[in-house]
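Below is the data:
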Amino acid sequence: MRALKTVILSAAVALGLGGSALASEGVKLPTQSWGHSGVFGTIDKASAQRGFQIYKEVCSACHSMKLVPIRTLTGIGFKDDELKALAATYEVQAGPNDNGEMFMRPGIPADRFPSPFANDNAARASNNGALPPDLSLVAKARVGGEDYLYAFLTGFEDSAPEGVNLMPGMNYNKYFPGHQVGMPNILQPDGVQYADGTKATVEQQAKDIATFLTFVAEPKLDERKQMGVKVILFLIVLAGLMYATKRQMWAKLH
């Protein structure tokens, strides 16, 4: 029975930071104020850039973003030369060459972010059997979206409440379904030194990484909202013109 529970919990971790079907079961998520919320909201590029810094320095040791091209970062203000320099820090597999062999080469902005592990089995072997979820779409895949990500990242407790027995290798998180998760608390006060001088509190780090993951999950979010506003304005103008035309036509008949 104990082994079965371990397998179930490992599977839950493998499915993501928190199973989407269970994310809100018995757990009330606190809501946050996001700059990209609402019809006119836009991604906070400075926050998203800080979030990428956290991903690169902390999260990328375990989590991949294999669906995200490096050039996607142009959407949060990275310049072409910055992207080329960043991409070159990665090695990606290419080929085959003239001899039919695969080889490694420096990355280019068109490449996707490489995984920290060679394959899923290697990832599980390094994480007590659990597969760290890919973060490419996690902000859209989890119930609560960025609110859930923020809550999860700030929901770790140093010890479990009285009466709760943590299984070996598990950590207590008050917002995770079942409250036991294999992932440790990765955010610490001043755990990163932000390039823009922002104070790196745990709450600030959680908000920044949640903003960044929201962006990578939907890089065209701002453009989509802008197009939606344009369409609404067009329809309002069109409705006004149609009403004016109707009034003019009926006035002649009278």
